Amino acid sequence: MSNTLPLDLPNRRNRYLVMRHGHSEANRQGRIISSPVQGIASFGLSARGRAEVSEVLSAWRWPRPTRIVHSDFLRTTQTAMRVAEHFGIATSVDAGLREREFGELEGGEDARYADVWAWDAVDAGHERFGVEPVDAVAERMIAVLQGLEEGYEGEVVLLVSHGDPLQILLSALAGVDLRHHRDRPPLQPAEVVVLSE
């Protein structure tokens, strides 16, 4: 696959916000938790993460969401549920928004992310360490948007996902060479970004 992803979203029928989950137990422990086996059942928000989400909600300055779609990992589910409760709306799950799989690095120190990102900068299709390739992450994230475009119109959709997948999605939408997805400032825990029209 090429290093850029062709997008077919020229005239969006909905508006989109993306949100990274709040600080999690995985973040607190400095561990890579990317497998659904661990991520769905455990490693939810830390106390700090719950506070971050509350702070974002108390100072909300973005369009009010009418629909929330989130990864099925516990940390994103808990973030989405707090936002949904605040606005009185329902949530739905889409596994396409899951964390990037980090293969054999699962459960290890999060300092190893840098090793993966160094290879990302060389080849967006690499699978070193058994990781999910950048271009595959971009494809599944874009597929979520395309599905929402086909299913809804006039909604303000909040997508709650993870740092790497959102970094890759934002790069893909901007037409950036996916090898350079780490060049943009990373989203901070509980950060919200409006997708440009």
UniProtKB/TrEMBL annotation:
Database matches in SMART domains: PGAM
Xref: SUPFAM superfamilies: Phosphoglycerate mutase-like
Entry annotated with the keyword Oxidoreductase: no
UniProt-listed Enzyme Commission number(s): 3.1.3.-
Domain of life: Bacteria
Keyword Hydrolase listed: yes
One GO MF term: hydrolase activity
Pfam families assigned to the protein according to its UniProt record, in alphabetical order: His_Phos_1
Keywords from the UniProt entry: Hydrolase
Stored PANTHER family: PHOSPHOGLYCERATE MUTASE FAMILY PROTEIN (PTHR47821:SF2)
Name assigned to this protein: Histidine phosphatase family protein
Organism name: Halomonas elongata (strain ATCC 33173 / DSM 2581 / NBRC 15536 / NCIMB 2198 / 1H9)
